[in-house]
Amino acid sequence: QVQLVESGGGLVQAGGSLRLSCAASVRTFSLLTMGWFRQAPGKEREFVAAISRDPEITNYAGSVKGRFTITRDNVKSMVYLQMDNLKSEDTAVYSCALSADPYYTGSASFGAWGQGTQVTVSS
After folding, report:
1. In 10 A of CB 105, how many CB atoms?
2. Which residues contact 62 (CB under 8 A, 6 or more apart)?
3. Exposed e or buried b per residue across 46-66, where buried means at least 16 C-beta atoms within 10 angstroms of its C-beta
4. Average pLDDT by stretches of 10, the chain with 123 residues
5. What's residue 4's pLDDT?
6. Strands 58-60 and 68-73
7. How many angstroms separate the CA atoms of 92 and 3, rounded?
8. Cβ–Cβ < 8 Å for 113, 22
9. Using the 8-state DSSP alphabet, how is residue 89 labeled?
10. Are 7 and 117 in contact (CB under 8 A)?
11. Alpha-carbon distance 10 to 8, whole Å?
């Protein structure tokens, strides 16, 4: 059974940084595309970033490009989201998810969501 557990959220001032982690319990982790999504109160869930299996091609939403960095560790079955220069509009619950596609093909390809971790950015 696939399980995704996020951690690393918290309260940070605007301009600060946070690093989110997602631990995946899935045998084929290295073959999967992993993604981060977020959902702010009253809004729909939106795509943040994705990283494919080798050669680890990354994709980012325009709103976070240049500020967020997604990485993965296939030995530990972990995916990370380094968030720098945070803004108040980044406040949301962040969740990781996996896709069986070898590279990012769109949000609809993702399933097996984690419970999420709250990120709050104060201005």
Report:
1. 14
2. none
3. ebbbbbbbeeeeebbeeebee
4. 95 98 96 97 96 96 98 98 98 97 92 93 95
5. 97
6. unpaired
7. 21
8. no
9. G
10. yes
11. 7
Pair of tokens at residue 27: 């045998």
C-alpha span between 13 and 107 (Å, rounded): 29
Count the Cβ atoms, other than its own, within 10 Å of residue 44.
6
Omega within 30 of 0 (cis) for the link into 55:
yes
Positive or negative torsion for Cα 117, 74, 107, 112: negative
Best CA proximity match to 104, nearest among 53, 40, 41: 53
Q: Strand, helix or coil at 109?
A: helix
Q: Do residues 44 and 55 touch, judged by C-beta distance below 8 A?
A: no
The 10 Å Cβ neighbour count of residue 81 is 27
Which of 1, 62, 46 is CA-nearest to residue 27? Answer: 1
Q: Is the dihedral of CA 78, 39, 56, 30 positive or negative?
A: positive
Residue count of the chain, please give it: 123
Instruction: Determine the Cα–Cα distance for residues 14 and 24; give it in Å rounded to an integer.
Output: 29
DSSP state of 63: T
| CA 82 – CA 93 distance, rounded (Å) | 15
